[in-house]
Design goal:
Strand order of the largest sheet: 1-8-6-3
CATH architecture of the largest domain: Orthogonal Bundle
Strand content: 15-25%
Number of helices: 2
CATH class of the largest domain: Mainly Alpha
Mean pLDDT: 97
Helix content: 40-55%
Length: 144
């Protein structure tokens, strides 16, 4: 089977050559992870910012709810505060999902053997920029 990265980037190492015997989970190659680490840092910062906004709008919604109960504000003002709360909650969920995605992408910078086998072909060398899905090595399973 042809094995390739799930993300694109510059190969910094290919740890196996043709004829190498590999075990399932063994590292075959690695991409430069600098950009992917930066994406994780940016996503973490975005999540922190959206959580801070959520804290603020939770307090605002609570104040407007109390004021509405006492008759000191209008229903439309409370509805606006409630809409802001729901938007902030959705933004936090989106930021959390984005963080999970970029963390997964960071993990994809290491190419691991899907099965035990023997490397029968190499399709890329260190220093080469590869696209997601491009064949890096070909592995024939031992049972084949």
């Amino acid at each position: 089977s042809e094995v390739g990265f799930e993300v694109g980037g510059r190969i910094i190492s290919r740890d196996v050559d043709i004829g190498a015997v590999v075990k399932k989970g063994q590292k075959l190659a690695e991409l430069s992870a600098v950009d992917y680490r930066n994406k994780v840092t940016a996503a973490q910062a975005d999540l922190t910012a959206t959580k801070a906004t959520l804290v603020q709008v939770v307090a605002q919604e609570e104040r407007f709810r109390i004021l509405l109960g006492k008759g000191f504000t209008t229903r439309s003002q409370y509805d606006e505060a409630l809409k802001s709360l729901q938007s902030a909650q959705a933004a936090v969920q989106a930021a959390e999902a984005n963080l999970r995605i970029v963390e997964n992408q960071l993990g994809y910078t290491q190419l691991l053997a899907p099965d035990d086998g023997i490397v029968t072909a190499a399709g890329a060398d260190p220093g080469q920029v590869v696209a997601a899905g491009q064949m890096i090595v070909e592995i024939s399973r031992n049972d084949a």
